[in-house]
Amino acid sequence: SSDDVKKMDDYIDVQTALIFTKQNPFKLYKLLEKSKTPSPIKAGMVATSDIIVEKGPTSFPPGPILGDMQGAGIPAAIDGGKVVIKETKAVAKAGEVVSQKLAAMLTRLEIYPLEVGLDLRAVLEEGSIFTPDVLAIDEEQIFSNFVQAAQQAFNMSVNAAYPTAMNINTLLAKAASDSRNVAVNATVYEPGIMDILLGKAYSKMMAIASAASSNDDALDDELKEALGAASSAVSAVEEVVEEQEEVKEEEEEESDMASGLGALFG
């Protein structure tokens, strides 16, 4: 509407271009920023930001250029047959006027402080005005925030036991694990946990047997006899298992040998 267009009056100044597009404001801003190119600064121009000269070697051999650089406020010296910049320095602050010497030297050093292109002042879309400070987003940071939010939402749904298509497998696995732990702690005799219960009972029995063997006087004869019988029974079971495994291995070896002979003699 006309009222919405009037909102743009504050952003229209001399040398203003109007762009009419269906492009998303954020994409438009990004497109215009990418189209900008570095440009050297001229004498008498005002620095839009701090102009920094980095420490390090240059491609210039010793000569009059050393004095020119020093005259422009650049801390230069000779080292190893080359002109070097001794330290990183802001040779012009934002808002300062650039001198002729500094402008010429920055160009020779291929330092281009300016960017030439279109500066987006504002975008009007469906009655809302977007300014550059709103449109200049860090895409990587935004993506990272979305990933973090998704992870936190997933964890919250799992902790709250709120089933969704995305977390149902995790919830079922968690429920199975929790029910298994409850059954073990409550000593519920179920086929799925009998191996754990037997292992737990065996460990307790061996602990008691160990304590009894170190302090025989603390136990009566009847308890000693029961512990001894239990220990013997466990040993017997282990021996039977070992014998069964040995017999099985021998049978497998005989079977392999028979197969080999059959293959040899057809």
UniProtKB/TrEMBL annotation:
It holds the Pfam family RL10P_insert. It comes from the Archaea. GO terms for biological process: cytoplasmic translation; ribosomal large subunit assembly. One of its GO terms (cellular component) is cytosolic large ribosomal subunit. InterPro entries: Ribosomal_protein_uL10, Ribosomal_uL10-like_insert, Ribosomal_uL10-like_insert_sf, Ribosomal_uL10-like_sf. Residues 42-111 form the Large ribosomal subunit protein uL10-like insertion domain. One of its GO terms (molecular function) is large ribosomal subunit rRNA binding. Keywords: Ribonucleoprotein, Ribosomal protein. Residues 239-256 have a biased composition (Acidic residues). The keyword Ribonucleoprotein applies. Residues 238-266 are annotated as: Disordered. Belongs to the universal ribosomal protein uL10 family. NCBIfam families: PRK04019.1-5. This is Ribosomal protein L10. It comes from Methanococcoides burtonii. The lineage of its organism: Archaea, Methanobacteriati, Methanobacteriota, Stenosarchaea group, Methanomicrobia. The gene is rplL.
